[in-house]
């Protein structure tokens, strides 16, 4: 099973998710998204895999989210994905992609639903 973890090593939840994936016997592909930001096309591809939505991928606790007005209910998915592409810190971490779909895995045990 191919598993990709969009990882921020400074985040405890992201480290916990990575450990849960490894405990399942899977060595995931790790994307350090702050060093290698996702393009808008990458983000579109992730959302198309579901079940995560553009809003699920948005780190709403990030101060920049409110500064950009992304926390308002009328903000479109397109606007959210544009903002995440422009400001990778807005990606909710960690995001995990498997053949079962993608999710922002907060809390960490959310990842278990994506694993065999």
TrEMBL record:
PANTHER family: ARSENATE REDUCTASE, ARSENATE REDUCTASE-RELATED
Protein name: Arsenate reductase
Record bears the keyword Oxidoreductase: yes
Pfam families: ArsC (PF03960)
InterPro entries listed in its UniProt record: Arsenate_reductase (IPR006659), Arsenate_reductase-like (IPR006660), Thioredoxin-like_sf (IPR036249)
Keywords linked to the UniProt accession: Arsenical resistance, Oxidoreductase
Reaction(s) the record says it catalyses: [glutaredoxin]-dithiol + arsenate + glutathione + H(+) = glutathionyl-S-S-[glutaredoxin] + arsenite + H2O
CDD domains: ArsC_ArsC
Single GO term (MF): arsenate reductase (glutaredoxin) activity
Family named by the database record: Belongs to the ArsC family.
Organism expressing this protein natively: Acetobacter peroxydans
E.C. number(s) listed in UniProt: 1.20.4.1
One BP annotation, GO: response to arsenic-containing substance
